[in-house]
Amino acid sequence: MPRWVEAERRAQLVAVGALLARRGLIRAAEGNLSCRLDDGRVLLTPRGGNKGRLDGAALIVCAVADQPPSAASSEALAHLETYRRRPEIGALVHAHPEALLALDALGELPRPGDLKEGELLVGRIARVAALPPGSRELAVACAEALADATVVVMARHGALAAGADPAQALARLEAAELLARVALARGARR
């Protein structure tokens, strides 16, 4: 892979991390991001770092087939397991969107059909049960849920959105959050 492609992917993750923070979808060290570099490697955000102020040089390169290094973000297992099972996915974004979490706490999921953007960008939103963050069980559940969805809500933990690239994964996450706001507003008017 040409060096400029890897540099471009690093810049994309840095930009998406900054947007997530500016839009209030992550705070401080929350969330994590990744993207494919080629058929066998991915870039992962580091554990504990502020994703809104990422340093592209600090992103971690890991083989999809390997175990994540200890320096990788807490949900690296979910990212790698998804990439192993879904070769068409090019990027993943995990964040803690407030409306999605609030709707999940009510036992509901957003309905993509409520907005054209939801139908076009998101398609299907899945949910996985509350499992320990960073666990193999959560990683497998997310990868399985993303087999026929583009966004998965992890009970009491946030959401994981998939896309061809970091920008598409972010767009799907934002659309799911908007759908959740619509659902909450609809519920408040009942």
User: What is the typical, i.e. mean, pLDDT?
Assistant: 93
Q: Which CATH architecture is right?
A: 3-Layer(aba) Sandwich
Number of contiguous helices: 6
Going by CATH, the homologous superfamily would be Class II aldolase/adducin N-terminal domain
Q: According to CATH, what is the class? A: Alpha Beta
Tell me roughly what share of residues is in helical segments: 40-55%
What fraction strand? 15-25%
Shape: globular
Written as H for each helix and E for each strand, in order along the chain, the element string is HEEEHEHHEHEEH
Q: What number of structural domains do the residues give?
A: 1
Strand order of the largest sheet: 3-2-1-4-7-6-5
CATH topology: L-fuculose-1-phosphate Aldolase
Output the radius of gyration.
15 Å
Detail the poorly predicted runs: none
Describe the main β-sheet briefly: 7 strands, mixed
List the helices and strands and how they pair.
Blueprint: H1 3-22, E1 32-36, E2 41-44, E3 60-63, H2 76-85, E4 91-95, H3 98-105, H4 116-122, E5 125-128, H5 136-145, E6 151-154, E7 158-163, H6 166-188
Parallel strand pairs: 5-6
Antiparallel strand pairs: 1-2, 1-4, 2-3, 4-7, 6-7
In short:
By secondary structure, the protein is of the alpha+beta class.
Could you explain the architecture of this structure?
The chain is α+β, with helices and mostly antiparallel strands. It has a single domain, classed as Class II aldolase/adducin N-terminal domain (L-fuculose-1-phosphate Aldolase, 3-Layer(aba) Sandwich). It is built from six helices and seven strands, in the order αβββαβααβαββα. It has a seven-stranded mixed β-sheet, sandwiched between helices. Helix 4 packs antiparallel against helix 6. The chain is globular and about 50 Å long. The chain starts with a helix and ends with a helix.
